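User: Run a structure prediction on this.
Assistant: Running it now.
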Amino acid sequence: MPLREFILSQLRSVGINGKVAGREIKIRCPLGKHHDNSPSFQIRTDGSMVHCFGCDFGGNWNDLAEILHLERLSHDGYRTALKAKLEYMSDTEPPGNRFDVEPRGLWQGEWRGIREETLACIPSHIWFDDFGHRRILWPVTIYGRQAGWTAGWVDKGTEPKYLTLLEEGKIPFPFDLVHRICLEFGKEKLVLVEGQYDALRLIDINVPALAILGIEEKKDNENEYVIAGNIMSLIISLCTACNIKSIMSCFDRDAPGLRGTSYFGHTLKDSYKFLFRFPPENRKEGKGDVGNAPLEWLASIAKWYWQ
């Protein structure tokens, strides 16, 4: 269900029939502040803006949903709607147009301390998502084939902070860039991390780090967890192509990170020399986060890689 259909269905649930006109949904003002014989209330089909020309109410879908007691497009709802939107497009659009993402040009400058030269290697783009949030956007590619997009936050308060739209399964990032680095450096070593920013922090200091884009476990039984998608087969494929012999996991020092470390260690230890290193605990949050790890810790990973 695309975002437009999600909004229309929510409105119908409270007896409001909307009329679609281009990128807008027109309805009579539901706030009861004025007579509205002709529809004067407009809702952007992606939920990014609502406005009444009669009473001058303005905001976005979440503001209206709260008043009418409808489902918000907050963190989880937003992800659900976007996932449904991608699935809808995958069924109806030709392969070349499956991802409803329109970059606004190449990213200029650094991002959260990552050098512009590093970001240009992926490459990085500017994008505004369905709620109008400004994001940094990267293509997700596997051996030259684009399989989706992943995006990070730019302005504080953006939710979700990271957004990934993939054709299928789960794909490590940035796969093709790390593949090129491993072949160029020839060190036979690889680092695994959880998120996009974690990987880019290490790549920025010339350490090939592959992000598995979070640890989302599917429980097979009471004691075993399986990393979702085809992530493991792609990691092994890269290791084979680059003659990797040693793998170090650098996951966050929290419950998912501990489980992910255990899973990868158990799966990879027979074929590779497997090491793990957690970032130091953050005094404020009480857990180790690779994204906030001090430069000294990053340097220790670089030292291991270049030994």
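The chain is about 30% helix and 20% strand.
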